[in-house]
Amino acid sequence: MAESGIKTFTFADVAARNGRGGAPLWIVYKDSVYDVTNYVNEHPGGVDSIEEEAGTDSTKAFDQACHSKDAHTIMVKLKIGEIVEEEKKYDANGKKKKKVLKAEPEGGSSRSCLNMVTCGLIG
Ligand code: HEM
């Protein structure tokens, strides 16, 4: 967000930076965006492993590779921004957000009660 001075990107912005056709190579790890264009050739885990994740949320693949503290230290320098608030998948504590359904409007609880009754009757 503009007020914190951190650049923000959507997942679509990141997807456009997939390293193909001379495009930069970005990846996402826990809602942070990393420009690995100049790092990929130095990557001890090889160019391919990063290229496979180019332009995507690579959190799972990154964690599965059991990266050391050193890897996280390198990442600090490669960070260029964060995913926009609306598209973030992790909360402020770094925990994966639960999928939140649209909040009930005021007085909506009676409707959900009705739904429960209806479901109860059908089920
Ligand atoms: C900014 C992003 C990344 C950085 C800075 C980074 C850094 C490193 C470093 C320093 C190592 C050496 C072992 C260690 O210290 O943990 C490593 C290994 C490795 N990395 Fe990454 N990495 C990044 C992204 C990725 C991604 C997206 C993948 C996707 C699968 C990946 C896969 C691997 C694998 C498989 C190894 C293990 C190589 C081995 O032990 O033979 N890395 N990485």
Summarize the structure in words:
- The chain is α+β, with helices and mostly antiparallel strands and 123 residues long.
- 34% of the residues lie in helices and 12% in strands.
- The protein has a four-stranded mixed sheet with strand order 1-4-3-2.
- β2 (26-29) and β3 form a beta hairpin.
- The longest helix is centred in the C-terminal third of the chain and has 14 residues, at 109-122.
- The chain is globular, with a radius of gyration of 20 Å.
- The model has no long low-confidence stretch (mean pLDDT 87).
- Residues 27, 34, 36, 43-45, 49-50, 53, 58, 61-62, 65, 67-68, 70-71, 74-75, 78 line the site of protoporphyrin IX containing FE.
Index terms:
Flavocytochrome B2, Chain A, domain 1, 123 residues, alpha+beta, 5 helices, four-stranded mixed beta sheet, binds protoporphyrin IX containing FE, 34% helix
Task: Provide a compact summary of the structure.
The chain is α+β, with helices and mostly antiparallel strands and 123 residues long. The chain is 34% helix and 12% strand. The protein has a 4-stranded mixed beta sheet with strand order 1-4-3-2.
